[in-house]
Design brief:
The structure is a homodimer. Chain A has 34 helices and 34 strands. By secondary structure, chain A is an alpha/beta fold. The first copy, chain A, has an eight-stranded mixed sheet. Chain A has an eight-stranded parallel beta barrel with strand order 27-28-29-30-31-32-33-34, surrounded by five helices. In chain A, a hairpin with a 2-residue loop joins strand 22 and strand 23. Chain A is elongated. At the A-B interface, helix 25, helix 27, helix 28, helix 30 and helix 32 of A face helix 25, helix 27, helix 28, helix 30 and helix 32 of B.
């Protein structure tokens, strides 16, 4: 370590913006701002390398650090004309953390460091305001005691309350200096009592204590938790910034504030901020006093508060000059902290400002149009998550909410409706044109139509990857899952939660983005897809190489997908079409059939409906490819579960309940995930796949013949594990296709491909690819098998696995690149070796996940397919992946 | 195809033994024997390439075949001084199939070809025996009509019966020539009537019809079935052998027979065979007449029949000279077919003789000691399957048996089962999981699957070389043949024997080593291992590189494994110890415990029992390594299923049935195979693994300390899927190990390794191997996950998959080398990259499978682990794998 301390002040700094890794975001910014000639209080930064050394070397500092710090302190003293620990003219400093990326609230800050019983008197004399000095002193003691010595702030707060009661005053500001002096003494006794140590009087000791506390706080539980959530490596470390104190609370000609160079809510190009006269920065951030707008544009309508522009016109003008300078320099919207000390403006900090999703899009688009940034940079400035949030309705934040409990935020968006407890009831509501929220213990495939009919879904069981969650996300429907606090009584048609009883028909609101369950109706604000969004997505589409398709099977979903920009259907799950009430009977008849003939009779009933499905889907996706997966789930999924349903089916089928129950029993499987499903059904009952293929081909053929469509149907065989299996089924499918082409007297191209969802398929990809025209990675099943992890059962240990860091992410949400991804890599490599023109896509849940999309881009996939609502997210993620890889090349 | 026909005759042949692939086993042998100067009737072989051409090219012959056949026929005529189709001195030929490997009874044979109404008169004149000539003619018509024209033999048999009745005679031989002439006419009318075609009179047409029939029979269902069972590729094809007829039935100075150069039952070095005077070869094989011994050594004790040595002393002496020559030449036990025509000996065929498993071992050992073959060849001469059969149990001699009769001891071993009278029924029994003994007059090739399904076979007719005997020996299935005392009534589904009636479904026991037929069930004991076996296995162990361990957990199994030569325990499944009645209660208490404390209380009860288990196992395996797998199955496997058990548990646990039922329900999993099991339990409930590790270490430690054992316990963590998972558990395990070492004041080595049974573990093997000291492939689970195939549920489609050839073998029996094996290959490569000294083994079911063992050998595994009973089989397979790979290098 050559240099551990970087000085900034007097218009120049040893560091600059580029040294962000070394100096942290804040330190690099302070250096940069100093170099820019902005009025930054001088100070110095202790590098992140010292932090790393501190953690690697058992909490000790590198040799020579003390000498460098001393030298920097001397320089500060010389610039400010004050001396640290001087009883006449004391230098006071702040000590702050600063990691590479902003970790708001995570790291501790200490202000007014350098005060003790002697220097406080010097400060009082300098400021000509003993009250200010002692207020600063008592604040410093509290902050230092809390952060460095671990004394809980409530001790100080209760002493402060006692003092105010003694004096009969309401606010801190009304306390007299004598009272403050007494408080200081009481604070120090409290420190001694609670920590067993005296409060350090020597400013040098205070300084090193504070530096140690900043480094220590990097290892704190809450910082570690933040890093885990935001995937920040442990070894980045934090820097320590020591900076001369300036005071916004030295009197009425002082102030402190926070401003954004553009409106962080809307993105509008206007200077926007808040300030507080005679206050320290923490007062603004902490929200204890209501801040005032810096200008008229920042004022909420009807707000009568004076603005900074009015109260400090000259200082405000200087601030405007500075913000324009800053935005030009940083080429992004800035979040500025400033202090006015006796009318003189100091910039304490500038950083990239946080913004709402729609502001992010608008700022990106505006800045391109202002020639501030390129389109590539604009694309990288908006996160896929922001796009996702942008497209879901949100609860109006201005309305008060009665939150009764919180579950998992399983599918984003918010919805209100009357509570119903069955899918049937939800459908009745839809038919009646009423909004319903479906409340279930958990959902099953039979609930799909009910979920579709409801505005939102609330379940007591299940995690982020439960059936309800997955299906709801697929539908773009809000869902709160795993809400263990609710106790449902289906019989009485009610649920109780934290002492409240909610009956069928009562109105409930759920927020699938936060997991909140709210009593009554809460209005929502719809996302606006405005001209900025449209423009932005146009640039995104220009940039990306990956195709984006949707997983969709209902004509409505397909339409939505198309509206969201999907360039085809990547996965049309034909079995979902089987659950509709009008069809399930024929499907069950087919399953119960004991002979091929009877099975074919039932299939003949399903055929026209299936054909209609495909006609509708082809119409909605006109001009784009549609990949249709043949029947996949085990047959028992279609059979009834309840006594009443069994009775009904027995009546319809003119057979006994016992016979049907026996069939249900005979189809029972111990591990249905690994059982008689997918193409195994096609091998066992060729007539099922034949019916489906015929429906696909006739639908396509008739549109081609009669309506001049151009369709090349993509027929996808699920659950292939062996070459011979695919060859056998391909021969069957080809036969039917040729029959249809013959019958229609047509010639058009169709493609036969396979899902890669069984590990063995990935391993034999080379020979499979010689037969298959496309691969689509079914990463849901591939993950289950590669990890030996049943999605339906993982709930009992997955949370623990995530918590202990065994899995870094839920592998059903974001592809496990090391394991499953390795199989995919192998399959791509071998598949392309077998067939140079193989089309490759992904159609599992993870297909809409950002890092998965980047992974697919790197492997040269042709497309990713995701739920319709995630299509715009996927488009952006694909563009960003393209940007990232081109920047790597 | 350069040459399609290979001639042999006059002491030299165009082919030789090395052209077995081209000429088939029989054709190559005939060529070789001709070259050796043995008295082989001249003839020629049409190559297997013609057969392949025939099947690839839609049943047509390659151009030019007719010319080559004609040329060979001319040469035969010239050698024999007879002419084909000549009415004076006609040449007759046999037409036989001959594939690369012997497929007894599978392919059709036609004798006496060339006879018609004119040539038969010539034959009569030549043989000076019109009766012989017409008998040959009527046999030829029947055989040809049946094989070539598809006319069922029963038509001819009933005509023959009528003729015998007409004449009032008992045997065919008593029929006069006039009657035979009439029969010939009747036979031909019958052919015309049944087939709609005239019997071909032109010998050339007969020849081509017969050749076509041989090729056609390659594609017959029964041949295909035999190939499937014996894994013979379809494209090998069969050759056709056309050979001059010699007659064993031209009078009393003629004979035909079959002999083995050593006793095929015991392996004893004695010339052994059967013959029939005045008969054709088929009479011996078909088992219709009871044959006579060729010498005293071949006679069953008490047998009064004359021997060939007595009846044909000179010819017998010549036969002895030839057999010695043959065995020296082929260096293996030979199965010889011979015919004596007017006292002149002709060899029709020699081939490697089928033998019982114990004969195989003895012959191999004897031949090494006779300096005929090397030890390596001896090792390769015994199949692992034979070793397995050798160790099959035999009847307990101490148990009293109700022997009702005795037949020929046709295939050794003993079996009990319910009597069935058809192959179909035997298959039904197998499907129902019940043991059957198949009782038939005689067996035919169609019975092969039924014989395979039955535990043993009993026939009323046929000798030691009958179809039933040969096939049963090949299968290692007990068989009693030629049991003339039993009288079967297929219609009534019963047989009577010595006044006893035995009906279908009654239990019967047969002893194929003694020929005894016993009423009721007789317990069996393990076979005795003789000095030949011991010597042989000593050579085997010298040869092999792979270690052989056993999967065992009870002290008794471990003991048996050790006796069978296991060099350690490769998989000790600790959960099996939990199911014992005395323990299950404590295990359930542990599962029901709601707190860690209560769980630990229950675990403390299990601990001493678990420790005793390990003490016993270590003792039984003294001097060899023991790999102990920590708890693997999901906890719900240990919970009660029935109402009564629930009640009992509730009583024991002093809780409600509802509470336990709720727990059972909460532990329910949709796909338990992929659920909360294996090391996931170790992560969730660290105290379970801690108890197990403590038990292992204390048991090992006490034996080391108190009894001077040398043990290095191998602790195996199941179901690892992530590096972090293993690291976490390894840290836990190490902690407990260190505690125990500390407590016992000892230092000894222990190893911590992992199962590789989740595909992801194979993919991350490099990083895993840096942490793990050994890998053991759990191929049961690895197969389930890699193939997406639940072993418990595969029954509904696996048979169809095998039948359709989608899977070539049951992947749970023999490792799927292409898929699962590829993952294993990847894991080995990566694992060794991560850890050069990594120990690698396999402990799945497939660990005892021959081709799996060869695969493991090729990948350089340290050991395979299999069930105790398969240990000797695995030892041989490992030695053969070593031989095979050294021959490849």
């Amino acid at each position: 370590m050559e240099k551990m301390v970087y000085f900034f002040g007097e218009g120049k700094a040893e560091g600059n913006q580029k040294l962000k890794d070394l100096l942290g975001g804040k330190g690099a910014n302070l250096a940069e701002m100093t170099n820019l000639g902005l009025a930054v209080p001088p100070g110095f930064t202790i590098t992140t390398e010292v932090c790393t050394f501190y953690y690697q070397g058992k909490n000790s500092y590198p040799p020579g650090l003390d000498v460098e710090v001393d030298r920097a302190m001397k320089r500060l003293e010389s610039i400010m004309g004050r001396r640290f620990a001087d009883r006449e003219n004391p230098l006071l400093v702040s000590v702050r953390s600063g990691a590479r990326v902003s970790m708001p609230g995570m790291m501790d800050t200490i202000l007014n460091l350098g005060l003790n019983d002697e220097t406080v008197e010097g400060l009082a004399r300098q400021a000509k305001d003993p009250r200010f000095a002692y207020d600063a002193y008592r604040r410093f003691i509290q902050m230092y005691a809390e952060v460095v010595m671990g004394v809980s702030s409530h001790h100080f707060e209760s002493l402060l309350d006692q003092a105010k009661r003694r004096q009969g005053v309401e606010s801190d500001a009304e306390l007299k200096v004598e009272e403050l002096k007494k408080l200081v003494a009481e604070y120090k006794s409290s420190v001694q009592r609670e920590s067993g140590k005296a409060f350090p009087v020597e400013p040098g000791a205070q300084l090193w204590g504070a530096i140690g506390a900043v480094f220590g706080s990097w290892g704190s539980a809450r910082a570690a938790s933040y890093r885990r959530i935001h995937k920040i490596p442990e070894d980045w470390g934090t820097a320590v910034n020591v900076q001369t104190m300036v005071f916004g609370n030295m009197g009425d000609d002082c102030a402190t504030g926070v401003a954004f160079t553009r409106d962080p809510s809307t993105g509008e190009r206007k200077f926007f901020g808040e300030f507080l006269p005679n206050a320290q920065g923490e007062d603004v951030v902490a929200g204890i006093r209501t801040p005032m707008p810096i200008n008229q544009e920042s004022a909420t309508p009807g707000n009568q508060l004076a603005t900074m522009e009015q109260l400090f016109p000259d200082t405000y003008a200087e601030l405007v000059r500075l913000y324009q300078l800053l935005e030009k320099h940083y080429k992004d919207m800035q979040d500025i902290e400033f202090t006015v000390q006796q009318k003189k403006l100091f910039l304490l900090q500038t950083r990239t400002g946080k913004r709402t999703p729609s502001a992010a899009v608008r700022i990106a688009v505006d800045m391109v149009n202002e020639n501030l940034i390129t389109k590539d940079i604009a694309i990288s400035r908006v996160t896929p998550t922001q796009i996702e949030q942008l497209l879901h309705p949100r609860l109006d934040p201005r309305v008060e909410k009665k939150v009764v409990t919180k579950g998992l935020p399983a599918s984003p968006g918010a919805a209100s409706g009357e509570v119903v407890f069955s899918s049937e009831e939800a459908e009745n509501y839809r038919k009646a044109g009423k909004a319903a929220v479906l409340v279930r213990h958990e959902t099953s495939p039979e609930d799909i139509t009910g979920m579709d009919a409801a505005q939102g879904v609330l379940t007591a069981l299940g995690g982020m990857t439960s059936h309800a969650a997955v299906v709801a996300r697929g539908m773009g429907k809000p869902c709160v899952a795993g809400c263990g606090a609710i106790s449902i009584d289906y019989k009485k048609q009610l649920f109780t939660v934290n002492g409240v009883t909610v009956r069928k028909g009562e109105t409930l609101t759920i927020d699938g983005s936060t997991g909140e369950v709210i009593l009554g109706f809460v209005p929502t604000i719809n996302s606006q897809v405005d001209q900025y969004f449209t423009e932005f997505m146009r640039w995104v589409d220009e940039k990306r190489g990956l195709g984006i398709r949707a997983n969709a099977e209902t004509p409505n979903d397909v339409k939505v997908a198309r509206q969201f920009g999907a360039e085809g259907v990547g996965l049309c799950r034909t079995e979902h079409m089987f659950f509709e009430e009008s069809r399930i009977t024929a499907v069950r008849e087919m399953i119960l059939a004991e002979t091929r003939e009877r099975r074919e009779t039932a299939l003949n009933k399903i055929f026209p409906m299936q054909k209609d499905d495909f006609l509708a889907i082809f119409r909605e996706m006109r001009g784009y490819p549609v990949t249709i997966r043949l029947l996949d789930p085990p047959l028992h999924e279609f059979l009834p579960k309840t006594e009443a349903e069994l009775l009904e089916l027995a009546r319809l089928e003119n057979t006994s309940v016992e016979a049907i129950a026996a069939k249900v029993k005979s189809l029972h499987e111990f591990n249905p995930m690994l059982g008689h499903r997918g193409c195994r059904l096609g091998v066992s009952y060729p007539e099922i796949y034949e019916m489906q293929v015929r429906a696909i081909m006739e639908a396509a053929g008739e549109l081609i013949r009669d309506e001049d469509f151009q369709i090349e149907p993509e027929i996808m065989v699920p659950f292939i594990g062996a070459l011979e299996e695919f060859q056998l089924l391909k021969a069957d499918i080809t036969k039917v296709c040729d029959q249809v082409l013959n019958k229609l007297q047509l010639k058009f191209t169709y493609r036969i491909g396979t899902m890669i969802e069984i590990p063995r398929a990935a391993l034999i990809a080379e020979s499979l690819a010689k037969e298959a025209e496309f691969f689509s990675f079914g990463t849901n099943d591939l993950t289950q098998m590669t990890l030996g992890l049943s999605r339906d059962d993982a709930g009992s240990f997955l949370p623990r696995y995530l918590e202990k860091g065994i899995y870094r992410q839920d592998p059903f949400v974001s592809l496990d690149q090391e394991g499953v991804g390795e199989l995919i890599r192998i399959a791509c490599e071998r598949g392309r070796r077998g067939n140079g023109s193989l089309k490759i896509g992904i159609c599992g849940e993870q297909g809409g996940d950002t890092s998965t999309i980047e992974f697919c881009h790197r492997l040269g996939f042709n497309y990713v397919s995701c739920s319709p609502f995630r299509v715009p997210v996927a488009r952006l993620a694909a563009a960003q992946a393209a940007l990232k890889s081109s920047s790597l090349n």
